[in-house]
């Protein structure tokens, strides 16, 4: 879909308007200016004085149908130029969304919101002391979010504050993410650092040497500064791809190097691929008091697993779940994906029925996203996925099933190119929520990323501004440079926590 927009030439509008177009059309190209030769021509106007006003007139070339929208709101006369432009951009987005909704008949329940972390907006308002109903009203007015999604946001925020009552006071602590970049095979939808482990033992050994170094040096710095760790999360890749002996040495390093490990609130290991779980590895985790793991089926349809490149069977998922439970894993998460190739509502209902037989403590329901670098995106014609309407039915089935089985939503995030413009939601039996998932989504503290492909998010203690810093994604680059990356992280931490202690 080629969309030409006249009346606006400021390139600062391009990205938000392109993002909104992507909510409606699988393939869209938005151009500011032009000669009205696109599939859609939208003429827009805006003005800013005592009121912010915007209007849009959309003409569909093929049918010559026309749709109009207008919006007006009081101007923040005493705001900065940046705040004023933000208000103008929002008004323009309102009328743009409205004419596209009229054209397509698609109602966007998330309104103009295309950001990843909707609940962060609500947290910010409540943290400032705003009453809930006022915060909800602002979300409705500013972003056109539906009551259904606002209620979901509020239930998640309330749950998070029940799980982590001191959520807003954790800026002087950190959480740790440890990335293991190896998997048995790479899934078709995956863009995470993940390298098939077969034949790579040399790379694994070298990588683990660098990771041990990072853990020691970061741990040393945290101890010197008396900084507590809130949670530790092993992700990847698949952290259980390495051997039981390698896992044992890694956890020993973690407990020896990190400060006050007995008071870390949570340690999680993603054992996401059932084909990597063995009794020996579970014994190692039990030895180090790790009992929160993920065993991820994604689907209980064997044809689907084959299509997306997961080389385990449905039976193996069930077998490894029971093995994990019998060997003392008391908090098991399972991931399901809505909209996988070839699946519609009946297949997803089969997956829910199989989940019911296991009843993990938490369940993360992802909506398939066509990530730019994935095999699935590069060869879209090979992977037939469900329609928007079918995906919405599947999400509704997940919501009904979780509510009916005692699960409550506790975190949420969204992605670009996500089917049906929906969301990914983590559900949990009360008391079994993942603290790390809350911390990474709500961005209330710094997250230090260690290992190949691990991304750090450093939170400024006063302004809340976030600085991103990522280790290289491929093992060779990581092995060549882990010392310099470790030193750079410590430099950033020195600066941030110096500001924190001085109150600047």
Descriptive keywords:
single chain, alpha/beta, Maf protein, pyruvate-formate lyase- activating enzyme, 2 domains, 15 helices, globular
Number of helical segments with 4 or more residues: 15
Query: Cα-atom Rg, whole angstroms?
Result: 24 Å
Using the coordinates above, name the CATH class of the largest domain.
Alpha Beta
Q: Order of strands across the biggest sheet?
A: 14-15-13-12-11-10-9-6-16
- Named CATH topology of the largest domain: pyruvate-formate lyase- activating enzyme
Protein structure class: alpha/beta
Show the helix and strand layout.
Layout: E1 2-6, H1 14-24, E2 29-32, E3 40-48, E4 51-60, E5 66-74, H2 81-104, H3 118-127, H4 132-143, H5 147-163, E6 174-180, E7 182-183, E8 195-196, H6 201-225, E9 229-236, H7 244-257, E10 266-270, H8 279-287, E11 292-294, H9 302-307, H10 314-326, E12 331-338, H11 345-358, E13 362-367, H12 375-378, H13 388-404, E14 408-413, E15 424-428, H14 435-442, E16 446-451, E17 455-459, E18 466-470, H15 475-502
